[in-house]
Amino acid sequence: MSDNSPELTKSFTEDFHNEEESILDSLPPEILPEILIRLPTKAIVKCTSVCKTWKSLIQSPTFISDYLRHSATKNAHPLLLFRLCSENLAKAVESLRRDEVEKEVYALHWDDNKDFSEHARFDFPFHGQSINGVFRVVGTCNGLVCIADDLYRYCYNFIIWNPCIRKFVQLPRPHMRFSTHGGYDASVGFGFDSKSNDYKVVRFVSLQNKGSYGKFPPEVEVYSLATGEWRILKASPPKGCVPYRNQAFVDNQEAFVNGALHWVALRRSKKKLINFVMVFDLGDEVFREIALPNLDECALSDSIWAYGNSLALIQHSNLWVMKEYANASSWTKILSLADQGVRMGLPRPLGMGASKSKARGFRKSGEVIVEMGDGQLISRDLKTEEIKDLGISGYGFTFVGSYVESLALLDNPNQRAKTTEGLAFLDEANSAITKVQEWDEKDFAMDLFRQMFLMPFLSSLTQ
Length: 463
Known about the structure:
four-stranded antiparallel beta sheet, globular, SCF_F-box_component, F-box domain-containing protein, F-box-assoc_dom_typ1
């Protein structure tokens, strides 16, 4: 038998694997998790195929939690997740066409190097499934991305997705829909409840029937990843409270900070509209409020973000930061952007005649990321005013958020809504506009006017 014979090669390979398995079996049980926890997510997923013992260990809730904790605390290289749309895709969505052929781009970039280099790019598995042409990114949390197909039309397709390990859960339809409650505005948030070790999607629905918009508290329903079900929340938000939700003009609607979701909300007080931050604690499932800085009476806040362990918001051309979380007196205007040139990389006011340059988020260093009118993404140091070209382009519908790689959902099979439910998503979304005429044409037209023209016009008055 020659040295290169198949029999000899097979024998050597079997001996090697047997010796390797013997070494692995001899490892103390406490050592193996310490080795595996240091591997990247792709390698971890491959390790589930080694043997049943490894698969059971890696998919256990304890290991998944430990891996996330290790990634968050030991990872010295922070990541940012970008969702980008090409110019052709953005134009197709804006014109309500669904004939686009290009996918949304989801990519991770290193946030701590000069080149802002790409770490990973993910294949988007839901291409062509959006009724609106493109999904909206609700938020990210612990390696999970929550997306919603609610950009323009009534639709109930919500997905929780871990792009690193290609796992996802498509949520069942919520209870409150156009077919059951008539016209509405809905604000959605996504975060993690550390008390119950559960991920939750929260949906605030402000009903518009019979001219009662804003007169009653929104209905609230919560989806639990642990139970896989929606439930109506018993506790109600403050009366007259309406989360400000306008996809055409608001880029970042919710912020998940310190175990709670935050929205900019409106309340009518006599003849005034008062803005405040509505807070929903995911653990206790209770509401509270945080006052906004002293803004103009009709000055709507454009966007709210997590800023470290606190909050930041863009109000027209002003950037505000809450230096001490939950302390309303600590709101500080750190930059006024109104008089700055567009090419300085600054967001401009929203509303009529506004520039298309918009703030999209923050880097770990505190630099603000801005999408210029031509699609170029830059970052600006708020102290030194230094401008950096990130070498990335987006043409609307851009999302930027901090990201940590995790194994969340690894212990779950991919879950799609039932086929009949999926068809119901499509049928209800396509028929909503025609059904609304049976509901109340006047109320619908007035709400459309308010959303598309009145609020942007009020915003423009304070420019």
